[in-house]
Amino acid sequence: MSRHPGLNLDASHAPAHDQAVTLVFGFWVFMMSDVIVFGLLFATYVAMSDALAGGPGPHDLFELRTVFIETLLLLISSLTIGMASLSMKHERDDARLFIWLGLTFGLGLAFLSYELHDFASMVEKGGVPSRSGWLSAFWALVPLHALHVSAAMLWLVVIAVQVLIFGQDSEVKLGLLRLTVLWHFLDIVWIGIFTIVYLGELG
Amino acid sequence: MTREAPEDEAGARAADAAHERRSYMKGFLVSLVLTLITFGVVAFDIADRITVLVTLGLTALLQIAAQFRWFLHIRLRGQARDDLQLILFTALILGLMGGGTIFILANLDARMH
Amino acid sequence: MTLHQFLDTAFGRLGWDALPFWEIVRHPHDGKAWLNGLIASGAASLVVFGALAVVVMLTRRRWWRSLWSGWLTSVDHKKIGIMYVILALVMLARGLVEATFMRAHQATALNDTGFLTPEHFGEFFTTHGTIMIFFVAMPFLTGLINYVMPLQIGARDVSFPVLNSISLGLTAAGAALVMVSLVLMPFSTGGWSGYPPYTERSFNPGAGPDYWIWAVTLSSLGSTLTGINFSVTVYKERAPGMHFFRMPLFCWTALCTSILMIFAMPPLTVATALLALDRYADFHFFTNDLGGNMMNYANLFWLFGHPEVYILILPAFGVYSEVFTTFSGKTLYGYRALVLATMCIAVLSFGVWMHHFFTMGQSAELNAVFGISTMLIGIPTGVKIFDWMLTMYRGQVRLTVPMIYALGFIMLFVIGGTTGIVLANPSVDYQVHNTLFLVAHFHNMLIPGTLFGMLAGYTMWFPKAFGFRLDEIWGRRAALGWIAGFVLAFFPLYGLGLLGMPRRLHAYVEPAYLPFTVVALVGTLLIVAAFACLCVQLWVSVRDRDHLSVRAGDPWDGRTLEWATSAPPPEYNFPVVPTVESKDPFTHEKLDGKALQSPDDWQDIEMPRNAALGLVLGLVGFLGCFGLVWYMWWLVVLAALAGLGAVIARSFTRNTTKTISADEVRAQYMEWLENVRALPLTVRSQESSRANNGRAMPVMKEQQ
Question: Where would I find the Cytochrome oxidase subunit I profile domain in this sequence (chain C) (predicted)?
Fold first, then answer.
């Protein structure tokens, strides 16, 4: 039986296995609070979808191709970070862990680069937040997700450095368990973004 | 789960690992298929707007459920009850707040025209 | 770079005109400028000299070191709780002074003769509301829950002690920002709800709304983290045998309040963040032009605002439940009904927010839905009132100070609740919307409801926290003063509202308002006197602490676990984690003669070490937000980097716990136990006298 959201360790990982019950649950509660933030930004976005104020609209600004690539990158990175946490649970081999973490970081970086490219091309076409209510809603929601991804990548680096210094000790394990939960959570938010923000407007 | 005998522990752990890896692969493949459907429907412009929106909504919900199930290991049974209660309560609040916001603002908007 | 450019970069838009006496310099021949300048300068000097006096005292008494290690870096939930309550009481003093100024102004404002300028008056009602909600009520209830809830569920601390001190740091940073706005003016004039477009940059370009935004945001983040911490604590840290349905009612209300904090604070964070984006980055969420929609602000704000009033009231309901059962010497009547009512209120509170803007223009059907859902909340609340009355029925009721507050609460709260049902009717609301009727209503809920509850809790648990009781006579004076003062100050406002007087009115020409405003002023002065009584009470009690000592820890014949340990409790709360077998566990222990036993399974106790992270993040949060208010971008960047660096550095700390040996715990406990066993039992008739030594003869034993 699983005791908390995300991957559960097993008894061979005591004491991290027991500490995770409270710590990962607490982090999950924080995610649930965060999901309200995103939910309200989604609602605001939907409510403002007509507020173009004569400015450029979704068909002028969005590129389906890059959004598709971003979606794939994030989905694959969800798999690789899952593999990283499985490697931590079962293999306990730093080198293998680094490979998975490195892959995840690279995919995250690629995702962010594509997003930055999207943002830049929007600005180029006059899609800046000061142009309309709809653009304001876009620029509050999607970059907030990008900010979350950046924070998660910074966390990933911090955890990698800690593995170098401390090895895979309890704190590292607890950190990686929570980072994995955050990463999957961000992918779920992204499902909302590509469905509502991009495809909902283009479809 | 019953305790395995010590000599089987390594084998059990390996089975456990394989099982969990499969779970992630399943989640990945299901999500991938749903993503392809979602983008396909929009990219190839194969249906009217209402059908597209309904499809988008359904595939998104399914994909969220899939990631909950296979990535976050949350299922309806065998789960610490606290987590599930929390998720259901969050969904309720999210529905109230998000739905309420859209409903109220749409109502105001309609009355201004 | 020229000197001018350097100063521009260093100080942003902060200039001489931010000083409180600047108006006098600019208009030296204007009497009102002098008066308002002097009032503002007086307040600013109080802040500056008050802070200096504290620094001097700490230095002269050499208290810096003990302040640092004993309090500021402490992660003990009891210390953090006490600091929250101190913050609340200090801010309460400021909020009360502001209320007095506003009432005095309105009592003299007939035909525009009041003494405050419109801007100054606007700052007064804005800071008053902001402070009373975010920096009095919230810290007060957070402090009480922090202190009491872990003790009541038999835990050693909250789940995340360092996070707890971060919450305190962020809340204190927000309060500090409001205090600094007295010295470097102005604060917002947009009311505690800060509605755009008035608070948008195009109408209000100054620093005022920015102070409000960041103070509220800091407090909101702190409360979100608090909510997470408390709810996880209740879920995961309960002592063995402490099933959910054995928890004291205060813990239930703490749990429901925390859940509300987790879900209701994000809408506020979103609302203030989007308003900040409008103001700082030229977004168009709530502007008049380019597709902005200011109604969404009202929607977002009250998505927070309505659950917020239940965040404020539920812990008070919890305190009253403890007060009624303790001081009636009876178990709580209708425990399950009270728990279910609390849950109902918590869930319903998310479905009523639109009644705050019935008049905004949505359809009558929509208004009707929210009107009905609002009235529904009256049902579980009514259940609670009856349960409390039936708890007193046939009990051995003792009229102690907490009980006086509680009785005042029951009478007044029912009146306030009834006016709430009146307001829930949209067509009535159209008549009294934005009048003083509304102001009377919500003060009627928040003062007898929340504040009396907090003061009752403060009085009841003070002896637990400090080992001596609060003086009874001054406590009664304060409680009666609060009750009478409240009635005089706010009942006239119902009349004024029905006469059509809008809230936040700077000047009026209707002579019929005058007698009511004068009576309200008298009531406010009475409340100030009651607050003075509280201060005297504290002073007298500290002075006479040896006579009021209750080290045995159980001055009121308590029923729950927090009374089973010494007063003040040791850092680790319980020498051995208690095992719970029923509701009211301590009462059962006392009746079965199992109290004051010496356990035999002593173990080493692991406790968290001190951490400076909360202090650092509080400081960094304050500086960063101060930089944002005045456009000192270098400060914002530095603060952000320092905050990030501190969090990362903390994550590299490995040695975060310390161990207290079983021998030490046993020695401490046995010494206390021997002292307590030597004390005579106190009967309830001596409860309020100096004979009360904290070792209670259980009421039910007395009756046998």
Answer: 62-581
